[in-house]
């Protein structure tokens, strides 16, 4: 149904006057009559008995009036909501890799507890998939760990995070020979991290990543520290994943004199203005981040 016809009918039944309706909607009286006629033809129903003075609304007309009322009040509410842009109300659609999610998701829950009318919706995906989700409109804001220069996206640095080699606490030296013997716990990003970190840690060693022994594989970021703590292998992980692990006290952290880092970036569409609740969230996440930075 044509929304304008419904709005005219709704106004007419409220005012009870074709003249007043025409004035209120900046129309002519014939225009009001035409909208009513078109709506009745569309529905194949008589909505008003115009022979009566004043006109009388039919039972079918009352049903259409109620339907129109819901639509019009909904439109008013939507416009008001968009105009107000309350930072403490609405959905937060976030996508991020698992490692980033381990850090930010508890902070998001803190926000939701503080402002119960926020609705946090988080999707964990590989960093490349996160970029595509933002472009497809599946999420509004993404956190990524890869370099991004897509022309449709705004990219803001969230934090430069160190990469740490983690070994069992029982391994006092964590020499390269010790690591070769024990093997590494593989995960989706591990080999890329090994390429970045091992040459910095052991510059005098001839390192062939492809020939290194593996002692296991897991793709659940939150559990990678577990086999390392048990002495099964070593691995390379982002700093904050290690800091937040429940077994962090059972790990030995090895890092080079010159830190090797990966950048966690925030991305969102250039042509998609972020509601104020996202700016509130990002500001809150940055404040929480400052509290755990050494």
Question: Whole-number average pLDDT?
Answer: 91
Query: Based on DSSP secondary structure assignment, what is the total number of beta strands?
Result: 11
For the termini, the CA-CA separation is 61 Å
Briefly note the CATH topology name of the largest domain.
D-Maltodextrin-Binding Protein, domain 2
Could you tell me the radius of gyration in angstroms?
A: 31 Å
Q: Percent of residues in helical segments?
A: 40-55%
Count of distinct structural domains:
3
Quickly count the helices: 11
**DSSP strand content:** 15-25%
Compressed to H and E, one letter per element, the order equals: HHHEEHEHEHEEHEHEHEHEEH
Structural features, described:
By secondary structure, the protein is α/β, with parallel strands linked by helices. It folds into 3 domains: 3-84, Winged helix-like DNA-binding domain superfamily/Winged helix DNA-binding domain (Arc Repressor Mutant, subunit A), CATH 1.10.10.10; 94-153 and 277-292, no CATH class; 161-261, 3-Layer(aba) Sandwich (D-Maltodextrin-Binding Protein, domain 2). Helix content is 46%, strand content 21%. It has 11 helices and 11 strands. The chain has helices spanning 3-15, 18-24, 29-43, 59-84, 98-114, 127-136, 176-182, 190-201, 225-229, 239-243, 276-292; strands at 48-49, 56-57, 90-96, 118-124, 141-144, 153-168, 184-186, 214-217, 235-238, 251-254, 261-269. The strands form 3 sheets. Strands 3, 4, 5, 6, 9, 10 and 11 form a 7-stranded mixed sheet that branches. β7, α8 (190-201) and β8 form a beta-alpha-beta unit. α1 crosses α4 (59-84). The N and C termini lie far apart (61 Å).
